[in-house]
Each structure stands twice: as structure tokens, then as C-alpha cells.
């Protein structure tokens, strides 16, 4: 079984690109503290939106979904799940809530992973929840004709419990006994977790929940307010591509963490930028609701949907958004593209 020694990777990972991403995140983290002190009402609104988006996106990556109306009711705990997909969505909701509310009390241990995985499947009526895999598994992909090829062969079932224990020990040792930036260690840990692939099912969703847990425990809590899972889902082709690149040679301890590390740090930077933008729009004093909608569209490069506008302004009703969009079209400040569910809007920069 391979060993886990994160300190050994330090010098190779400190490329100019990674250093730049780390610097940006550290700067945003300083702003985070100021926002939290002065914008508590705004942050509550952002948290509610992010929880829905995170639950939807992380499950959607795995092909698990339901209607938007049912999703919101399940996440807000206003209905019971009816289908297998909805039961798994409800499980994710509860684990996400546990991490949001209790991350300080959830150390990085295999026993904690098993409890979180148990709760992920608590509505599913399945015996796999809370247990490591009992049979060997593979990470495969299917071509257009339905033929499966093996992309990666994870750690065998009999080695999995000890591999996870060693992984957790290596993480804790590095975090507590070195000056190595946690933002370097977290993506390496997540990649190793996925290469071990410790569960029969739910490894992808668990990896994203663990990403949030590790970020929160190191005081990077942007994922509470901006959905990191949604940013991953929006770039999932790159997500899978970097996972594949960074897992090559993993069993021989010859893999390159940099592709996945750069990807995940880029996602965190994007989350912080979105966080700053949304807080500014939500908390702009003296600005009416139509003016805030106008600013959202004006400051967005490219096309934007009505639902995306509402995500950025969760305190504004759909009626107000629709009326404002109509007024902005009439004044030729925005351009409407398409019809029905595919309708988007873009700021008319020819008038500037």
C-alpha cells in the first residue's frame, strides 16, 4: 500500500500559478472576516441559496436529480422524499447541514467519515451506508456505444480501512506539525481519498462534503455562502480531466498533484469573487431593488438567466425581477435572447 507524505511534495507544488492562487485566497479570506461582522442578514440569505445549489449540484454530478420545486421543498425540509433520488438528496442535505453547523467538532478520522456516509444514505434503506466497500471497485467510463473502460483501479477492499486511517493520520500530522499551507494539503487529501475510493457508492459526493469540512476547519468558509459544488458541476469536464491527470501513477507514488490542486484552488478563488460580488449587490445602501437588478446584469459579462439574477438577489421577488427586466428591455438597456426556458439577457453595451 502506498504511503502518504504531504510534506515531501511542498517544493514541487509551489509554482508561480499556485502561489498566485494562494495569495488571492488569503486576501479574500481577510475580507471574509469583515463581511461576517457587518453583513449578517445578507449572509443568511446567501446561505439559504447556497444550500439549495450545493445539494442540487453535487447530486446532479452523479446523475441524481429531481424537479426544482421538489428540490427546494426537500432542502428546506418541508416535505418527505418520495423517490430513490429524493432520498439521496435528503441525505446529502442532512450531512451538509451537519458540516455547516458542527465542523469544529468533526475531526478528520475514519470513524467520522463512516458516520457522515451513514447519514448520506439514512433515507435510502440501503446497508452500504456507513460501511467501507466489501468488494473491489473500479473507476470506469462508458463510450458512445455503452462499452466500459477502466480509467483507474482504486485500493482493494481489504486494504481500504488501513489506507483511510493512514490518510487521516498524514493529514493531521501535516496540518498540526508543519507550516505547510492547508490549502495545499486539502486538495491532495481529496485526491487521495478519491483514489482510495473507500465506499461502494457515494465517493464523489463524500469527497465534496469532505472538501467543505476541511476548508471550514481551516477557516475558509466561503462554501457556506457560495456553492462550491455548483462551481464544480459547472466545470465538471475540467474536474474529471484534472482528476485523471493527477491520479496517473498514484499507486507507484509517482502522481502529479498539480493539475487537481490548481483546479480546486481556482474554484475556491471563483467562489470568493462571487461572494464579494453578491455581498456588494445585496448590501448596497440607497439602491432600490430594480437598481440592484440592473447592476447585476450590467456587471455580468455575457448572457444571464432570470434564475441566475434571482440567485444573486434572493430577497427580490420573481414578480419584481420580471417587471424590471421588461422595463430594461423597453429602455433598450438590455437585450433579450431566446424564448421560454431558454431565455437569457445581456447588457446592451452599444449604448455605453
How would you briefly describe this protein structure?
The protein is mostly helical and 352 residues long.
What features would you describe in this structure?
The protein has a two-stranded antiparallel sheet with strand order 1-2. The protein contains 15 helices and four strands. By secondary structure, the protein is mainly alpha-helical. Helix content is 60%, strand content 5%. The protein has two domains: 7-281, Fido-like domain (Fic-like fold); 286-351, Orthogonal Bundle (Arc Repressor Mutant, subunit A), CATH 1.10.10.10. The N and C termini lie far apart (62 Å).
Helix content: 55-70%
Q: Examine the secondary-structure arrangement and name the CATH architecture of the largest domain.
A: Orthogonal Bundle
Rg from C-alpha positions? 21 Å
Contiguous helical run count: 15
Strand order of the largest sheet: 1-2
The computed structural class is: mainly alpha
Low-confidence stretches: none
Please write the string of helix (H) and strand (E) elements. HHHHHHEEHHHHHHHHHEE
How many strand segments?
4
* Cα shape: globular
CATH secondary-structure class of the largest domain: Mainly Alpha
Count of separate structural domains: 2
Distance between the termini: 62 Å
CATH homologous superfamily title of the largest domain: Fido-like domain
User: Biggest β-sheet, characterized?
Assistant: 2 strands, antiparallel
Q: Please report which band the strand proportion falls in: under 5%, 5-15%, 15-25%, 25-35%, 35-45% or over 45%.
A: under 5%
CATH level-3 fold name of the largest domain: Fic-like fold
- In round numbers, the mean pLDDT is 90
Amino acid at each position: 500500500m502506498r504511503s502518504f507524505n504531504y510534506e515531501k511534495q511542498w517544493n514541487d507544488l509551489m509554482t508561480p500559478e499556485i502561489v498566485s492562487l494562494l495569495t488571492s485566497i488569503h486576501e479574500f479570506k481577510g475580507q471574509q472576516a469583515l463581511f461576517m461582522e457587518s453583513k449578517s442578514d445578507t449572509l443568511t440569505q446567501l446561505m439559504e441559496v447556497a444550500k439549495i445549489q450545493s445539494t442540487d449540484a453535487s447530486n446532479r454530478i452523479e446523475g441524481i436529480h429531481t424537479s426544482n420545486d421538489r428540490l427546494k421543498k426537500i432542502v428546506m425540509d418541508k416535505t418527505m422524499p418520495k423517490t430513490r433520488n429524493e432520498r439521496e438528496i435528503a441525505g446529502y442535505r442532512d450531512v451538509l447541514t451537519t458540516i455547516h453547523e458542527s465542523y469544529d467538532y468533526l475531526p478528520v478520522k475514519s470513524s467520522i467519515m463512516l458516520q457522515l456516509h451513514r447519514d448520506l444514505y439514512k433515507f435510502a434503506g440501503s446497508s452500504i451506508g456507513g460501511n467501507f466497500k466489501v468488494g473491489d471497485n473500479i473507476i470506469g467510463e462508458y463510450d458512445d456505444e455503452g462499452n466500459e473502460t477502466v480509467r483507474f483501479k482504486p485500493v482493494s477492499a481489504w486494504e481500504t480501512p488501513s489506507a483511510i486511517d493512514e490518510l487521516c493520520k498524514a493529514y493531521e500530522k501535516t496540518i498540526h506539525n508543519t507550516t505547510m499551507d492547508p490549502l495545499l494539503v486539502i486538495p491532495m487529501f481529496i485526491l487521495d481519498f478519491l483514489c482510495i475510493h473507500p465506499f461502494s457508492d457515494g465517493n464523489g459526493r463524500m469527497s465534496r462534503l469532505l472538501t467543505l469540512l476541511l476548508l471550514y476547519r481551516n477557516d475558509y468558509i466561503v462554501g457556506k455562502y457560495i456553492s462550491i459544488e455548483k462551481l464544480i458541476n459547472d466545470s465538471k469536464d475540467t474536474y474529471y480531466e484534472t482528476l485523471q491527470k493527477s491520479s496517473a501513477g498514484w499507486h507507484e507514488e509517482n502522481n502529479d498533484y498539480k493539475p487537481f490542486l490548481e483546479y480546486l484552488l481556482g474554484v475556491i478563488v471563483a467562489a470568493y469573487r462571487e461572494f464579494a460580488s453578491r455581498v456588494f449587490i445585496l448590501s448596497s445602501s440607497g439602491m432600490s431593488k430594480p437598481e440592484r437588478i440592473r447592476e447585476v446584469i450590467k456587471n455580468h459579462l455575457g448572457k444571464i438567466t432570470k434564475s441566475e439574477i434571482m440567485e444573486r438577489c434572493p430577497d427580490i421577488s420573481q414578480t419584481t425581477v420580471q417587471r424590471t427586466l421588461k422595463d430594461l428591455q423597453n429602455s433598450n438597456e438590455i437585450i433579450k435572447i431566446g424564448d421560454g426556458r431558454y431565455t437569457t439577457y445581456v447588457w446592451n453595451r452599444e449604448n455605453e
